[in-house]
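Sorry, can you check?
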Amino acid sequence: RKPMAYETTSESTEALLVTGGVGTGKTQRLVERAAALLAENAAAGNVLVLCATPQAARLFSERLAACVGAERAAGATVTTARALALDVLADDGARRWSGREPRLLTAFEETFLMEDMKVSGLRPKRLREMLKFFYRSWTELADDDPDWLLPGEETDVHTLLKESLAFMRAVVEPEAANLAARYLREHDEARAAHSYAHVLMDDYAGASRASQTLANLVATCSITVAGDAETCIETYDSYPYAAGIDEFLATHPDAACEHLDADAPDAVEQVALASDTPEAEFEQVARTVAEAVAAGTPARQIVVAVPNSVWSRNIATALHARGVPTEALAISQPLRGDVRDNARCTPARIATALNLVANPDDTAAWRCWCGFGDYLVNSAAFARLRTCAKERSIGLVDALEMLSENDCEHVVGAQRVATAYKDGRALIEQVRGLRGTTLLDELTRIVTDGAESQAPAVLRELCLEHGNAADENPESLYDADAAAMARRMAERLLAPTLEVADAVAVVPYDFACGFSPDLLIVAGFVNGFIPSRDYFDATVTPPERQEKMRAVDERRVRALTGKAGRAVALSYFTSTDLESAGKLKLKISRIRLKNGIRTCTIEPSLFLEQIAAQE
């Protein structure tokens, strides 16, 4: 369904489009543009820069400060479109208009939303497909068309989704920019309040259409965007919209256009690092990095790109063993586990308890707290509770109060939910006044019924200051209140960045945006990781789907390897045991018996030859 086109900026807005391949200097051009605007004494707070990821925003800020000085650079707001959207939705007017809080659900919290959606009666696979359709449509603003949904099942499920999110007073990521853009288009005063004279957006093609629209909406004097449709990949925004570059030109027919070409495309040295096993690869990558640091390459000028958390963890460990300062960017949110079994989701339960202590009115946290430990996370009870709340025009927390007072009839599972709610209220009172590690440990003791007395390491890592911040203020480890710890946890789960200033960065393949390292090492460059194993399986992937998958992976490889400034090393291993190959979902070329162990032959990524041929 084709998205509707509409104007987002005034005719007087000056527009500049910067295009070019990876490594041609688009980001540097935006840095220079922002520096020029700040040098022209643009009013503080009147320059907004939107970057692809939180880490890219941090790196952009550093480059801007190096260009114009920290004091002047502070006059620009450098952030992401998602953060801008949440800022818009934080307005009191936006809260009333949307019925939501600027509260993104984390991965484990979305599990509860998914269970609440299953009361629709759809099979899980069909439900997931429909949710993907809704999410993509939201990012492309398809809901501008009142007839974008088919009557019947589609409309009913979408209504249930919106009502479930409204009941939790929360937002899912694909919805944030959609809501913010719609709110600003319908409320001129809010649009004026969130406007910036000059807006710059990097990796424009990698943003969703809603994020692109939001950037245009808040620009009053000028908007400058940089992007490359040929390397459009999904990173931080769901459903990147490469066609946005053409729409930008259609919206700004008088836009100035700059195309950048690489100065010396053959200047980057390319090498292949072959290892016998994954363990040998980890050591070889660490040795290569250590030798580069010893030869004078600053640690912060080295990036190791990894395919998954296993490679991230092992390479970081190998680097630390060699004394190389290293920090890994999170690949996935670390609060995992089966929310239906209390014993298997302890960190998530403690995190939810912390959110309740930080904000006893956190509706989404109450939904989760009252659902832990039940096979269906009490979805039937909450479906009925939502109906009761709607009939009485009250919210989830008031409905829980009513339920705890036996004032809501015919709610299946009411006793379980009411008991959990009372336990949550008692917990909030029990820990009142506690802070820092003392608070985390007490929450752990309460949540585990005394089985554990010390908070899990993952929560300490998420909630407490570490890195440079902790070194400067060690008391903060013990003094942070619940609100501060909950805020840090949300930032590290939903907007992770690297916090160590001078360290080798270990990042996922698709999160190298913003980096311009002297040395880039692409680890785990094998078939199965890129392309995925499904690409090679004709029973799973038909030819037309295979072609699309290859095109996406080609863009990913091009976007990644193009980041290297001086050298790029493509690292791979050639064998592993059968059990590991199965768990890692590797493409197995051959199986043979070696020293009594079934050993698989693993081939380097099919893109290795393609890169070598280009060289």
About this structure: Confidence is low (pLDDT under 50) at residues 1-6, 467-471. The first strand starts at residue 14 and ends at 20. Residues 543-561 form the longest helix (19 residues).
